[in-house]
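Field log, afternoon session.

UNIT: design team B
ACTIVITY: writing a sequence onto a fixed backbone
BACKBONE:
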């Protein structure tokens, strides 16, 4: 038995969305302000805290209608709703779930639960002020508690077809249920993002969070032990720590007895005087050490050995956070075991708080095993961590996004929905999707949280792109006024010639992307044996084709077999007139500049900076045959690059080093090098869009 789907309507940013819950662990990812916290809050409100709904929980799109509410308003259109679709099998114990099953047809394997928070129209309209401004203010300040009606219904929409949801078109068939039944069916535990974790800076200014939660952990175990003493049939001696609690109680009883004897001597005079003076009878002072108080007041979490230890607040925030999480999970595990509900939900908000990347990797690896060890549990984890995402299964990821800053949130099943998009690509789709899954590293996972992305070809561009971005920001007036590229949330990925593999992925997450690539021109050379042409690398002048699959894909190249069409497209490619139809993706590649058309980034850069390279050649690494710089006639930079460039990364590194070191000593702060125009044009586009 498990929750298969959660549908949400009219709650804050979550106006109409649905989350697939078929995995044991579901990872909710997305940029800031996409509703991850709202999702956690809604679950908590409907399942545990129904009295906490208020005016601010209603989405902006309904506010105007709420302000105009009157006796004729259909409040069902304004209701906040959540629907749980529950799947079960013949092997499940349906005793508790049967309360929510309205049809016992043996062929059915689903039932649904509807949660509704509806405005109590009669109560609210009766007390609303006449004045429009006062009316609005009253609603903003008072629409909560007594003016809201929160209810739970069972329904079964098996086979329902129609534009309107079953729970709207078949209201008479909804069966209201008591919250006691719901509480028996579903146990929700939430570990919130705002955790009481403090560093050494806070020492002595408040409670110690680990010691405090250790106390809470012990208190729950102690209470359970008391309950088991009262009900021997359900005794839980096999529960973790049960035997230890009994031993602790026994030790404390012995201490009480010994202290009692000492108290009689210490307080003897005081007690005798009290009896004589106040006539209080047999007055005594006895020892009564409570185990909970002892844990709370006399225990602390330390690290190190007993002789040489440090207090908990000397630990880094990351360690404190993880330790706190693990203790919270243990508390939740106990609660799941104690209540023994058929459906258990654990929601962990932002486990990455305060932790460094390596610890986030470790958490992502370990948490799945920890969750799997808890029977009948489904876990939801919200995160902003690309490190956690990169260590997670594709099948677990649910992506929350907004089409605009004011638009509603949509929740997508990353694996299922994206796989469908890749299937549209035909035979290549499966291999491209496989590549994408293998490439979900820390870098590509950043795309989930980025506002923009830049794809680059290789190492040279990766080394020099930060310099080019700095050049753009300093030379562009618009950047100076509005904030440059360096201040924007941009993810840079080195994808080589595989940018096309990301096409459906980029469309799926809606990230505006600049692709900086090479034109990679080739020339068709007939094969004398079979007559089929081979395509060999060739300078731009005289080329007939390109080997760049990214250009072919995004710029819609005709098939090579359609010779005339393809040649016409190739001419448009060379002139820079071949454009992408996707307004969110722009490709930039080498175009003619100062009378020369480069084939790659390296020859474009050398052509642009030839004289400076010639002067500084002794200080530049990654070069060979540098004497050819003196005899170069200024015609074919592509051929020259092939002859003088030995190691691209070394060359790029020394170019960057010369820029940073020499410009630091130059009072004019003029840049030594110039960036190719196609790159600067691309940076302008990604900055503006």
């Amino acid at each position: 038995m498990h929750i298969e789907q959660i549908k949400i309507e009219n709650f804050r940013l979550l106006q109409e969305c649905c989350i697939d819950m078929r995995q044991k662990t579901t990872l909710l990812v997305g940029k800031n302000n996409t509703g991850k916290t709202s999702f956690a809050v809604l679950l908590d409100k409907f399942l545990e805290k129904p009295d906490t709904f208020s005016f601010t929980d209603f989405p902006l799109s309904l506010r105007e209608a709420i302000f105009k509410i009157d006796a004729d308003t259909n409040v069902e259109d304004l209701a906040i709703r959540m629907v749980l679709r529950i799947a079960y099998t013949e092997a499940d114990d349906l005793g508790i779930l049967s309360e929510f099953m309205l049809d016992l047809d043996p062929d059915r394997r689903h039932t649904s639960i509807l949660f509704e928070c509806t405005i109590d129209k009669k109560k609210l309209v009766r007390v609303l002020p006449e004045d429009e401004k006062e009316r609005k203010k009253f609603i903003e300040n008072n629409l909560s508690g007594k003016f809201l009606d929160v209810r739970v219904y069972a329904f079964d929409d098996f086979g329902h077809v129609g534009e309107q949801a079953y729970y709207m078109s078949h209201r008479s068939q909804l069966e209201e249920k008591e919250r006691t039944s719901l509480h028996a069916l579903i146990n929700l535990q939430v570990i919130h993002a705002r955790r009481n974790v403090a560093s050494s800076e806070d020492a002595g200014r408040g409670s110690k969070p680990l010691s405090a939660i250790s106390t809470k952990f012990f208190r729950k175990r102690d209470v359970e032990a008391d309950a088991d003493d009262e009900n021997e049939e359900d005794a839980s001696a096999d529960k973790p720590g049960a035997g230890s609690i009994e031993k602790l109680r026994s030790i404390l009883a012995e201490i009480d007895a010994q202290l009692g004897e000492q108290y009689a001597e210490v307080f003897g005079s005081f007690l005798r005087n009290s009896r004589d003076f106040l006539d209080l009878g047999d007055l005594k002072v006895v020892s009564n050490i409570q185990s909970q108080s002892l844990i709370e007041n006399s225990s602390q979490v330390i690290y190190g050995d007993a002789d040489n230890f440090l207090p908990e607040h000397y630990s880094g925030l990351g360690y404190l956070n993880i330790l706190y999480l693990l203790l919270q999970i243990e508390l939740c595990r106990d609660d799941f075991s104690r209540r023994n509900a058929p459906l258990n939900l654990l929601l962990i908000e932002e486990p990455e708080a305060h932790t460094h990347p390596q610890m986030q990797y470790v958490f992502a690896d370990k948490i799945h095993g920890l969750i799997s060890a808890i029977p009948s549990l489904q876990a939801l984890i919200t995160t902003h961590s690309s490190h956690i995402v990169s260590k997670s299964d594709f099948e677990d990821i649910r992506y929350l996004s907004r089409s605009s800053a004011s638009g509603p949130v949509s929740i997508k099943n990353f694996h299922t929905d994206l796989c469908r998009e890749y299937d549209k690509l035909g035979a290549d789709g499966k291999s491209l999707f496989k590549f994408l899954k293998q490439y979900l590293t820390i870098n590509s996972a950043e795309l989930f949280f980025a506002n923009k992305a830049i794809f680059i070809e290789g190492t040279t561009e990766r080394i020099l792109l930060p310099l080019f971005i700095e050049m753009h920001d300093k030379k562009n007036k618009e950047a100076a006024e509005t904030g440059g590229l360096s201040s924007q949330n941009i993810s840079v990925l080195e994808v080589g010639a595989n940018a096309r593999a990301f096409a459906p992925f980029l469309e799926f997450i809606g990230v505006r992307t600049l692709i900086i690539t090479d034109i990679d021109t080739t020339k068709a050379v007939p094969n004398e044996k079979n007559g089929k042409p081979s395509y060999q690398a060739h300078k731009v002048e005289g080329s007939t084709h390109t080997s760049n699959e990214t250009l072919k894909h995004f710029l819609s190249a005709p098939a090579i077999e359609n010779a005339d069409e393809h040649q016409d497209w190739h001419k448009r490619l060379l002139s820079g007139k071949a454009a992408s139809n996707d307004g969110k993706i722009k490709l930039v590649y080498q175009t003619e500049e100062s009378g020369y058309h480069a084939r790659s980034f390296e020859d474009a850069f050398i052509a642009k900076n030839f004289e400076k390279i010639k002067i500084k050649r002794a200080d530049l690494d990654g070069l060979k045959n540098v004497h050819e710089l003196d005899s170069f006639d200024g015609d074919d930079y592509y051929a020259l690059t092939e002859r003088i460039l030995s190691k691209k990364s070394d060359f790029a590194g020394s170019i960057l080093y010369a820029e940073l070191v020499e410009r630091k000593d130059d009072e004019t702060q003029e840049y030594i090098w110039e960036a190719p125009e196609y790159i600067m044009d691309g940076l302008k586009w990604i900055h503006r869009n």
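LOG NOTE: The chain is about 40% helix and 20% strand.
NEXT ACTIVITY: expression trials, pending approval
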